[in-house]
């Protein structure tokens, strides 16, 4: 450990020092990563190729899947490699990139979930104005704003976090470069700038949370006035998956970032970090697919022989243009 910590990089202390458990961790993470990869790629493919899903709701869902795909790819592959080789070392450049993309994608995910809640609000509470509110231009601008906001957040955190002098051994008790754990390595009170950036990010996330809550208050008050039970069921089938994803992601993220980092992380600490980093990108495709009849129908069509022929013709027409 002394040789590693004397270098510019960091030593990631994963789940266990025992070799068998390291291999088990690598295999479990690999299976989870492949599941997340498959599920999110399926949603991206379905929402791109199926013309019936060319609407704002599925446009935002496609970008959520793209964010999930990138988000899980930031931490899990590196952790798998470290476990397989039995070496938790990560270089300074790798750690910088990991922190930047992790914060940027997490911030973008909060932003896209906020945009998706507003889309559902506009569709259910203002149906007559929906086409003008969520026109293609507005959807593109919203997605661009989501990616830019995430990039700026990641840039601020990375610039401040890696400009602070560190003291002691560069050991991070996590399977990735976790900002709260890295702050434990900071000398004395030099982390005041990082606290300011974290406070700004937390305030922004809180504003997004309030916006989502207000959107769903209006949505549910409108839904309860729908006389048809079939109409209420249809609305709930599109809103409940999104509400579950929002609740799970923000509660896990809030617990991870607002609690004080422990000097000796327990299994519970590692489990909550998995809930925040690994679980949402893995379960989001399952939740949206199982609760959405249009997604299930599009998936069956894509997997059928007729759907394969139609996709082939669609791709040929794209290349001709």
Summarize the structure.
The chain has helices spanning 2-5, 19-49, 56-85, 92-125, 130-133, 136-161, 179-183, 192-223, 229-258, 267-277, 279-290, 293-303, 305-320; strands spanning 10-12, 89-90, 171-172. The chain is mostly helical and 321 residues long.
CATH superfamily annotation: Rhodopsin 7-helix transmembrane proteins
Q: Helix count?
A: 13
Overall mean pLDDT score?
81
Number of domains: 1
Unreliable residue stretches: 1-6
* DSSP E strands, number: 3
Strands of the largest sheet, in order across it? 2-1-3
Largest sheet: 3 strands, mixed
- The separation of the N and C termini measures 57 Å
- What overall form do the CA principal axes indicate? globular
Following the backbone from N to C, one meets helices and strands in this order, namely HEHHEHHHEHHHHHHH
**Rg on CA atoms, Å:** 22 Å
Structural class: mainly alpha
Helix content: over 70%
> What would CATH call the architecture?
Up-down Bundle
CATH topology category name:
Rhopdopsin 7-helix transmembrane proteins
Strand content: under 5%
What CATH first level would be assigned? Mainly Alpha
